[in-house]
């Protein structure tokens, strides 16, 4: 046995990582799929129930309502992130790429919030936009617009927009840096040639830069799609376990968290004895939704390219 | 390029963004030296007095130092384990050829496809069985297992190294292991530095996993300790401010000092694919 290993030195290199990775990344995926077929809370007896958990998720009116509401909020976040934030990131990236005066400062400042942890970001938002202690309302009072003062972090009907704005302020830098890096990989000659041909600043952005970094844009779109579908921190920190009043800030991951590790008894007894079964069911459905859309998206882009 | 001077609106937007960030951080620091009553009732007024009480309180009474240590410990251990495991795996995959190599590579990459939430319940059950709930090792082990990105970055690097170096060392009698850690691993240090930067940002800001695994106050990381106070601002405004400053400012100072290096590290990590 030892000799067999000795002849295959790569096994020694691969094995430690392989074991840890298999236990904590690969095995849990299969285990989650399997657990979703049981009625279980992780402590007592596991009862095999087939697809009953899946059926319950889509027939129990309260579960279904919460799930679809959370999914809706995730979809809004995806649309805003991909449709609004990515263009802004591209625009900032281009401005930095062209070394507009002060670009180092902009780059540093826009990237800085990456180093502020999410709980502090939400606290900072509270300091500015809270109804009672926020400076924004104080400023409105001072300039005589006090009648508009309100709780800016929970405007009824716009809670998801609030989530998006906080997420955008904190997250704009990361993908922007990716785009800057992608632009720097392009050859200077093409840029110079188009400049000499008389293409203006924005013309070069739309006709020369964007087409050439298409694959980077698709990658980032995919990453930010997955990030928006699995957003948790801001929703939890702003809205608590229930995701705000009437689940207005709820997202799928928070719904999953509430059912699995949940603290409030809003769901009644039937679910709490099935926290693990229903939790993994939600996780699997979530993954299926993310995966299928990502596959279609990938398929379409590669088809177009060929 | 001559025509970039005209971007007044763009520059204005960027200046507003940058100054907003600076102002809000300044406001945070400023308030952390005021008393709780002063911040709550005299929000925009000139403070009656400045005090270090909030900081004394969080370190002496609330033992916030322990939370800082927990975050640092988790960060360092996780990075050490990921770098060790991933560079070994990447070396094995990048430098040797064997049957099923493509399959093994794919196996290591597949982890990138799955959101954390999918496997977190089984992971929680395993950690519980190991008795590691409320131990920093729960978070360290689970985060250290996420080596997919690191393996991808490093295996491309190792595969691209010339053979001559390893061969000459082998002729001198160095074993496989020695070739790896004496010659090949040091060569990878630029890639490893980039990797560590990307990993640090990610590990330092972890919220979901510690939230589930670490429930005792004494094992909480910085982000979790902060929400102990921010969740009830009227009661804990002073502590919320002081812990937020401690959670944010030292890291940001480090970032501002090394910003060029960090940003280029993040950028090079992205184009390595």
Automatic annotation (TrEMBL), chain A:
<dbReference type="InterPro" id="IPR050809">
    <property type="entry name" value="UgpAE/MalFG_permease"/>
</dbReference>
<dbReference type="InterPro" id="IPR000515">
    <property type="entry name" value="MetI-like"/>
</dbReference>
<comment type="similarity">
    <text>Belongs to the binding-protein-dependent transport system permease family.</text>
</comment>
<feature type="transmembrane region" description="Helical">
    <location>
        <begin position="276"/>
        <end position="296"/>
    </location>
</feature>
<dbReference type="InterPro" id="IPR035906">
    <property type="entry name" value="MetI-like_sf"/>
</dbReference>
<dbReference type="GO" id="GO:0005886">
    <property type="term" value="C:plasma membrane"/>
</dbReference>
<keyword id="KW-0472">Membrane</keyword>
<keyword id="KW-0812">Transmembrane</keyword>
<feature type="transmembrane region" description="Helical">
    <location>
        <begin position="75"/>
        <end position="97"/>
    </location>
</feature>
<keyword id="KW-1133">Transmembrane helix</keyword>
<dbReference type="GO" id="GO:0055085">
    <property type="term" value="P:transmembrane transport"/>
</dbReference>
<dbReference type="Pfam" id="PF00528">
    <property type="entry name" value="BPD_transp_1"/>
</dbReference>
<feature type="transmembrane region" description="Helical">
    <location>
        <begin position="160"/>
        <end position="181"/>
    </location>
</feature>
<feature type="transmembrane region" description="Helical">
    <location>
        <begin position="109"/>
        <end position="129"/>
    </location>
</feature>
<keyword id="KW-0813">Transport</keyword>
<feature type="domain" description="ABC transmembrane type-1">
    <location>
        <begin position="71"/>
        <end position="297"/>
    </location>
</feature>
<feature type="transmembrane region" description="Helical">
    <location>
        <begin position="217"/>
        <end position="239"/>
    </location>
</feature>
<protein>
    <submittedName>
        <fullName>Carbohydrate ABC transporter membrane protein 1, CUT1 family</fullName>
    </submittedName>
</protein>
<keyword id="KW-1003">Cell membrane</keyword>
<feature type="transmembrane region" description="Helical">
    <location>
        <begin position="12"/>
        <end position="30"/>
    </location>
</feature>
UniProtKB/TrEMBL annotation, chain B:
<dbReference type="GO" id="GO:0055085">
    <property type="term" value="P:transmembrane transport"/>
</dbReference>
<keyword id="KW-1003">Cell membrane</keyword>
<keyword id="KW-1133">Transmembrane helix</keyword>
<dbReference type="GO" id="GO:0005886">
    <property type="term" value="C:plasma membrane"/>
</dbReference>
<feature type="transmembrane region" description="Helical">
    <location>
        <begin position="240"/>
        <end position="258"/>
    </location>
</feature>
<dbReference type="Pfam" id="PF00528">
    <property type="entry name" value="BPD_transp_1"/>
</dbReference>
<keyword id="KW-0813">Transport</keyword>
<feature type="transmembrane region" description="Helical">
    <location>
        <begin position="139"/>
        <end position="159"/>
    </location>
</feature>
<keyword id="KW-0472">Membrane</keyword>
<feature type="transmembrane region" description="Helical">
    <location>
        <begin position="105"/>
        <end position="127"/>
    </location>
</feature>
<feature type="transmembrane region" description="Helical">
    <location>
        <begin position="12"/>
        <end position="30"/>
    </location>
</feature>
<keyword id="KW-0812">Transmembrane</keyword>
<dbReference type="InterPro" id="IPR000515">
    <property type="entry name" value="MetI-like"/>
</dbReference>
<dbReference type="InterPro" id="IPR035906">
    <property type="entry name" value="MetI-like_sf"/>
</dbReference>
<comment type="similarity">
    <text>Belongs to the binding-protein-dependent transport system permease family.</text>
</comment>
<feature type="domain" description="ABC transmembrane type-1">
    <location>
        <begin position="68"/>
        <end position="258"/>
    </location>
</feature>
<protein>
    <submittedName>
        <fullName>Carbohydrate ABC transporter membrane protein 2, CUT1 family</fullName>
    </submittedName>
</protein>
<feature type="transmembrane region" description="Helical">
    <location>
        <begin position="179"/>
        <end position="204"/>
    </location>
</feature>
<feature type="transmembrane region" description="Helical">
    <location>
        <begin position="68"/>
        <end position="93"/>
    </location>
</feature>
């Amino acid at each position: 046995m030892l000799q067999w290993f000795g002849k295959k030195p790569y096994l020694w290199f691969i094995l430690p990582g392989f074991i840890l990775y298999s236990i904590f990344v690969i095995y849990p995926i299969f285990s989650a799929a399997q657990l979703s077929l049981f009625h279980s809370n992780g402590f007592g007896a596991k009862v095999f129930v087939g697809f009953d958990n899946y059926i319950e998720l889509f027939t129990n009116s309260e579960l279904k309502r919460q799930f679809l509401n959370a999914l809706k909020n995730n979809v809004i976040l995806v649309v805003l992130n991909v449709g609004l934030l990515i263009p802004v990131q591209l625009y900032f990236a281009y401005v930095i790429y062209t070394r507009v005066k002060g670009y180092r400062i902009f780059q540093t400042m826009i990237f800085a919030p990456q180093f502020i942890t999410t709980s502090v970001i939400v606290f900072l938002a509270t300091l500015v936009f809270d109804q009672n202690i926020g400076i924004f309302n104080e400023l409105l009072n001072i300039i005589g617009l006090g009648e508009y003062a309100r709780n800016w972090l929970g405007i009824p009907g716009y809670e998801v927009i609030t989530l998006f704005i906080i997420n955008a302020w904190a997250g704009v830098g990361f993908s922007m840096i990716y785009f800057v890096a992608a632009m720097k990989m392009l050859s200077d000659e093409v840029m110079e040639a188009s400049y000499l041909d008389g293409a203006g600043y924005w013309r070069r952005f739309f006709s020369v830069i964007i087409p050439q970094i298409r694959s980077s844009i698709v990658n980032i779109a995919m990453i930010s799609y997955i990030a928006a579908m699995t957003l948790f921190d801001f929703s939890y920190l702003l809205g608590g376990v229930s995701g705000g009043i009437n689940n207005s800030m709820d997202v799928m991951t928070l719904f999953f968290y509430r059912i699995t590790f949940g603290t409030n008894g809003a769901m009644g007894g039937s679910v709490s004895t099935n926290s693990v079964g229903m939790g993994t069911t939600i996780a699997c459905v979530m993954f299926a939704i993310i995966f299928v859309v990502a596959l279609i998206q990938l398929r379409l882009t590669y088809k177009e390219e060929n | 390029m001559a025509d970039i001077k005209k971007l007044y609106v763009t520059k204005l937007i960027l200046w507003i963004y940058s100054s907003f960030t600076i102002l809000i951080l300044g406001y945070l620091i400023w308030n952390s030296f005021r008393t709780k009553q002063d911040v709550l009732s005299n929000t925009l007024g000139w403070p009656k007095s400045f005090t270090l009480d909030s900081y004394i309180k969080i370190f002496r009474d609330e033992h916030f130092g322990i939370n800082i240590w927990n975050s640092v410990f988790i960060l360092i251990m996780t990075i050490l384990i990921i770098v060790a495991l991933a560079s070994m795996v990447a070396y094995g995959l990048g430098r040797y050829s064997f049957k099923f190599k493509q399959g093994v590579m794919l196996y290591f990459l597949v982890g990138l496809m799955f959101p954390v939430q999918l496997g977190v319940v089984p992971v929680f059950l395993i950690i519980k069985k190991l008795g590691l709930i409320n131990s920093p090792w729960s978070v360290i082990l689970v985060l250290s297992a996420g080596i997919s990105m690191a393996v991808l970055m490093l295996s491309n690097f190792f595969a691209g190294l010339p053979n001559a170096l390893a061969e000459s060392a082998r002729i001198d009698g160095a074993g496989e292991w020695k070739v790896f850690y004496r010659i090949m691993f040091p060569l990878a240090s630029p890639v490893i530095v980039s990797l560590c930067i990307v990993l640090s940002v990610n590990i330092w800001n972890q919220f979901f996993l510690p939230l589930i695994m670490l429930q005792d106050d004494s094992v909480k990381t910085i982000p979790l300790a902060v929400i102990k106070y921010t969740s009830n601002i009227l009661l804990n405004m002073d502590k919320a401010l002081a812990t937020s400053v401690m959670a944010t400012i030292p890291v940001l100072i480090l970032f501002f000092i090394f910003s060029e290096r960090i940003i280029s590290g993040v950028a090079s990590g992205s184009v390595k694919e």
